[in-house]
Amino acid sequence: MFVRNVFKSASSQFVLGITVGLVVSFIFTGYNYSTTVFAKNKESVAEFRHTSGRRIGISNVPETHEQQLNNAEQEHERAHRQLDTEIGKSPEKIIKFVDEHKHHDDDHVAKDLAKKVRVLCWVMTSPNTLQKKARVVKETWGKRCNVMLFFSSVSNSTFPVIGLNVSEGREHLTAKTMQAFYYIYQHHLNDADWFMKTDDDTYVIVENLRYFLSSQNSSRPVFFGHHFKTIVKQGYYSGGGGYVLSKEALTRFGIKGKNDSKLCRTDGGAEDAVMGICMQNLGVKTGNSTDSLGRTRFHCFDPETHLFGGFPDWYYHYDANGVKKGIDSISDYAISFHYVPFVIKFSFKHVLFCFSRRVSTV
User: Fold this and answer.
1) pTM value?
2) Integer angstrom CA distances of residue 325 from 116, 187, 295, 316
3) Which secondary structure element, helix H or strand E, spans residue 198, and what is its range?
4) Which of 2, 54, 91, 346 keeps 20 to 30 A from 205, CA to CA?
């Protein structure tokens, strides 16, 4: 009996040691990744702040509201370009994978919500990233949406993407967004209750999105996302972090916004900020998507950044919820993460399972 107890104790200690070692290894690896990726970005942002001579909302010379808005939009656009350059780089290697892994959890809640809370997801992509990024979205989380659409500047014979009459380039992202939402209003308004826009390097846990939206009313003029507090009076949502419009919000856009450039700009400017101004002009309100503990659901960076920090300086002036890092700052029912490298999206769906608890079936 004594030998048996000693053996059981030794076995328990061995298992515990292995578990602790794996956890420490994961944290150390994530920390190294986060600090390495953002070191160069911080240098770029610091250089940008030095040359611009001011931060958002800080000026020694009185400016009109229009001048402040234009300056804020320009600085916003500059910051996003830097992020795309420094963080959004992806290797050229394409990994083939099969997304057929099945968990043995009780997923009846997720299946029931899929019938009650209908979500249309649409992804903004381009000819250069169609196969590298959009394809991965289609083969992973995109399958969980009730309706999944991809929009680009041109159609593709081998991929179900809708071509818009828009030139490529960041300066035309607003036109892409406006035309895509109008297309959805014309062809899919009654196919869903909620309509979510994301980029092709965004990962969405659709089950958690439905779980959150199940407590919301799609007949109200409201939209949700990662809340930024600059530029627009009521704030707006990060385009990369993804934002979701209620059916009423999309209806107002389709009836009034698309046909009135005074309410909704047709092109130019920072796409997500312009959309925020459009929604405000249409009487669509920004909604609170944090959980009961004040933790965030939508995220404009990847999981490592929100876990370990390393945020660029501009972010501290934009985030409406107060910049935080660590597992306690992220909701157990997290919905989205941006700048997720496409080559590891197939494994991120398992890593992100720790944020999804019982609702998600990733």
Assistant:
1) 0.72
2) 33, 40, 10, 12
3) strand 194-199
4) 91
